[in-house]
Structures are given as C-alpha cells and as structure tokens.
Design goal:
It contains 7 helices and 12 strands. The protein is of the alpha+beta class and 243 residues long. It is globular and about 60 Å long.
Length: 243
C-alpha cells in the first residue's frame, strides 16, 4: 500500500518484492507524515535526526556529480547529437552513457533548449528534439518484459487475456497515468496503452509500476515504447552529410 506521505512513498522500489516477504515486513512509519516523524524524534531527544537535512539523489556517490561517478565504471567513445527533425548536428557529446531520454541539453548557441529523444548505441548518435513539448518526447504505448505481480490474482487475470485497467508510473514521484494492460506474445510480455501520453520519462531498462488506488500491484521492466517518425525528408538523408 502507498505510504501516507506520498513524497516518501517507497512502493515504486518495493514493487519487485515477493508477496511472501512483504507479509513478514513491518513499515512502522508508513501511516505517518515525515514532518510528524521529525516531531516525534524531537520529543524523544533525537535532535540530530530531527534537524537533519533531507537527502536527495544517489546517497552513496557523495558530493561527486553523477557523470563523474559513472565515468569511473563505464566509458563509450564520443559522438554527436543530431536534431531528430532536420538531421543537423547540434553539438558533440562525450559518451552515450552520460545521457538519458528526456534529459535537457542547454547550448549557449541555441535559442531554445533541446531534449534527448532517442539514443542509438550502434552509431553512437544521440537524437535530440527542440523544445519540451516536441511530439518525439511523448509516449503513448509502453512494451514491458514479463511482469512481477505481488498478488497472484492479477497473474490469473492476465493469463485469461483480460484487460487490466489501473494506474502506472515510470519513475519515483512521477504522476500516475491511467492505462490498459494486455499480454502480447508467448512469453508473458505486456503492452501498456496509456490514457494520456507520458512525456520524456520512459526509457528501456526502467520499470513501469502498476497501482490500483493505494495498492501497488507489481511492476515490469520497460523494453520499448512507441516510436516517433521524423519528417520524410530527414529519413531520406544520410546523417553523416550533416556532420
């Protein structure tokens, strides 16, 4: 179940835990706001914890920037960022591992910001779109690997090829979106049709987590999404000509 404090809710990260384990797990502050927990700590004399600042980001990398941290373990050759509509080179990049879908790119020479809309590891090209509302950033349909259902009743529903109507989120603290879930293929994979598009927040390797009201139903790893088709004149061009 979702926590009372939705800003601290951890169901997104617990969505792959087996039901048997969750039955034996206690969440003593799940029905208390973080602000109330701090008040209880203060009353109990735990001033250090009551006044401790909130932590954000990835705690184990310390004060380092994430790009510096990940570059210690992964390296890819540099490449270019290309406008998805025109095929024009926007700028260079130092490795595709440093960028993710939906990430903003600020270039002093550009009048508006660009956003990462596709990454091609084979060519080492990052495709970018001009403006936050570009249609290439919108996702209307998500394809997922075999899901993990916390309760067996949802697995049985899917096995009968019925449509499951629920909510989905693709990142912690992201908005919930209404969706219809159906099986496709013979390996239990899912297709998730969204009632309204999710913008810039869907990438392979992330997880789609499903909810029915306050109940977390389970989750599945994202393996793909619907593709944006650029303009025909760009499709007929060789990208290297624009480099």
């Amino acid at each position: 179940m979702k926590a009372k404090d939705l800003n601290k809710d951890q169901t997104f990260f617990l969505s792959q835990v087996r039901e048997e384990a969750l039955r034996k797990t206690l969440f003593p502050v799940g029905d208390i706001l973080k602000s109330d927990v701090k008040k209880l700590a203060e009353k109990s004399g735990l001033i250090h914890f009551a006044e401790k600042k909130e932590s954000f980001g990835i705690c184990f990398i310390g004060n380092r920037k994430f790009k510096d941290f990940i570059s210690e373990y992964i390296s890819t050759p540099p490449g270019v960022m290309v406008d998805i509509d025109t095929g024009r080179r926007v700028c260079k990049h130092k490795g595709i591992h440093l960028w993710t879908l939906g990430q903003c790119i600020h270039q002093p020479s550009q009048s508006s910001a660009y956003y990462v809309c596709d990454i091609n590891p084979a060519s080492n090209i990052i495709y970018v779109a001009a403006g936050r509302n570009h249609p290439s950033l919108d996702c209307h349909q998500i394809f997922c690997a075999k899901p993990h259902w916390i309760s067996g009743r949802h697995q049985k529903l899917m096995e009968t090829h019925q449509v499951l109507v629920c909510d989905v989120r693709t990142r912690h603290r992201a908005n919930f979106t209404k969706c219809n879930i159906m099986f496709f293929g013979d390996k239990g994979k899912l297709v998730v049709d969204l009632a309204e598009p999710i913008s810039g927040l869907v990438a392979p390797g992330q997880y789609a987590v499903f909810y029915d009201g306050n109940e977390c139903l389970g989750s599945a790893m994202i393996v793909g999404k619907d593709k944006y088709e650029p303009r025909k004149q760009f499709q007929n061009n060789e990208i290297c000509h624009s480099l």
